[in-house]
Automatic annotation (TrEMBL):
Residues 1-68 form the TRAM domain. Its EC number is 2.1.1.190. This is 23S rRNA (uracil(1939)-C(5))-methyltransferase RlmD. Keywords: 4Fe-4S, Iron, Iron-sulfur, Metal-binding, Methyltransferase, rRNA processing, S-adenosyl-L-methionine, Transferase. The active site is at 406, 406 (nucleophile). It comes from Lysobacter yananisis. It comes from the Bacteria. Catalyzes the formation of 5-methyl-uridine at position 1939 (m5U1939) in 23S rRNA. The keyword Secreted does not apply. The keyword Repeat does not apply.
């Protein structure tokens, strides 16, 4: 393959890709009358003229990075983070916050139109909250870089082969985001610094023996006694619960304190949900509470209803629903989460919440809960969506469906199925800014028969 010419060139930006890059067209000097090949330009915004340098090519589009902004968009702002543009954790810090959520709304509507061939009767107001210091769960990569004589801890760079050299993170909750440099120094001083590829973090409520923050250190070789002592001392100093992971997820175990308990609260429903350090919880705690209320408002559960909650996890939606309805059934594919969801129901005194383990991507005809009647359906599937389970459900039993989505393309596909093949109406849909400054689009849709 011929080398890419990296001579900077001028380009006008007309749109924004779904991953937050500017879109323009570069005229072909050999075909001056053609529109030109699409080129995606990192760091550029619609309405701008920039000098860009090409970084990659493919048959249908090329890729580039902006090296100079010649004419700035009025929506351009100065990124708060000094690492923006190198660290791959954020893609949109240079775009005003009110425009970020509008861009995500456009992504959702374009997916409905292009993939689902359906549009909502009503576009819901966007759900937003604090845009900084919100991320309570994530994974830092770790790499010892001999040329720099230091250990790097952070998210991957925009080039994912590299770990970003950061000292703090503006989007992670401050209890962790302000400690990135200290965490890097800790690992750099360990015997096993080359054997630790990642550190997972998760945050919940303050407890008696720690501040609700858990760090899980993945290590590829046994840690020395000295390293274990350093990790425990770091935990005591910062009141972090420290876990070790020498193998798969089932090998995770506490180092300090001896038996740390982790939980987060949903105060509007007087709930406390216990979790383990690698469990899935919603990343943005304050938006999560608003999202639950939003979903329940759209679902309109009645006191005598029986509700089905698919992809239920720890019971994030199931348990608030149990406060409102006669009975709710939560179904989740991961057995460990189902067990903890059952414990959460018991811990909160909820006898009307039942949980079942089932692979929702496989044949469900033998599942007992499938043969029981329901009034309403709530589902919050992974990125792959819920197409297979929707084809198996007796959909006519439901009065209303609320679908929470972390991937607009799969939501649009499934909405198309419900509307065009099963006769449902897409009454309302909108976006929720679960991940400000990233291109991630969280959305919600309500269907009625």
């Amino acid at each position: 393959m011929a080398r890419i010419d990296q001579t900077p060139f001028e380009i006008a930006i007309s749109g924004l890709t779904h991953d937050g890059r500017g879109v323009g067209r570069r005229p072909d000097p050999k075909a001056p009358d053609s529109a030109g090949k699409a080129i995606f330009v990192a760091g550029a915004l619609p309405g701008e003229r920039v000098m860009a340098k090409q970084t990659a090519r493919s048959r249908s589009f090329d890729e580039a990075v902006a090296v100079q902004v010649l004419q700035a968009s009025p929506d351009r702002v100065d990124p708060r983070c000094a690492h923006f543009g190198v660290c791959g954790g954020c893609a949109l810090q240079h775009l005003a916050e009110d425009q970020q959520i509008l861009a995500k709304q456009r992504v959702l509507m374009e997916n409905f139109e292009r993939i689902g061939h359906v549009m909502p009767e009503r576009v819901l107001p966007a759900l937003t909250d604090s845009a900084w210091g919100y991320r309570r769960k994530g994974r830092f990569s770790v790499r010892r870089v001999e040329k720099k004589d230091k250990t790097l801890v952070g998210f991957r760079e925009t080039d994912p082969r590299f770990v970003a050299d950061i000292s703090r993170c503006e989007t992670v909750i401050p209890a962790i985001g302000d400690k990135v440099a200290a965490l890097a120094a800790l690992i750099d001083g360990m015997d096993g610094r080359r054997e630790i590829p990642q550190v997972e973090f998760i945050g919940g409520d303050r407890m008696d023996d720690h501040d609700g923050i858990a760090l899980t250190f993945r290590h590829l070789a046994p840690l020395s006694d000295g390293d274990r002592d350093k990790l425990a001392a770091f935990g005591r100093e910062h009141r972090f619960a420290i876990f070790l992971q020498p193998g798969g997820i089932d090998t995770v175990h506490p180092l300090w304190p001896a038996d740390p308990q982790l939980q987060f609260s949903l105060p509007d429903w007087d709930l406390r949900l216990k979790f383990r350090p690698l469990d899935f919880i919603q990343v943005n705690a304050s938006l999560n509470g608003r999202m639950i209320q939003h979903a329940l408002d759209l679902l309109e559960p009645q006191p005598e209803d029986r509700v089905l909650d698919l992809f239920a996890g720890l019971g994030n939606f199931t348990l608030p629903l149990a406060r409102r309805v006669r009975e709710v059934v939560g179904v989740e594919g991961e057995a460990g989460l189902v067990q903890r969801a059952r414990e959460n129901a018991a811990h909160n005194g909820l006898g009307n919440a039942q949980f079942y383990a089932a692979d929702l991507g496989k044949d469900l005809s033998g599942e007992r809960w499938m043969r029981e009647g329901f009034d309403r359906l709530l589902l919050d599937p992974p990125r792959s969506g819920a197409d297979f389970v929707l084809t198996q459900l007796p959909l006519k039993q439901f009065k209303r469906i609320v679908y929470v989505s972390c991937h607009p393309a799969s939501l649009a596909r499934d909405a198309g199925y419900l509307v065009r093949e099963k006769g449902w109406k897409l009454r309302a849909a909108g976006v929720m800014d679960m991940f400000p400054h990233t291109a991630h689009v969280e959305s919600i849709a309500m269907f009625e028969r």
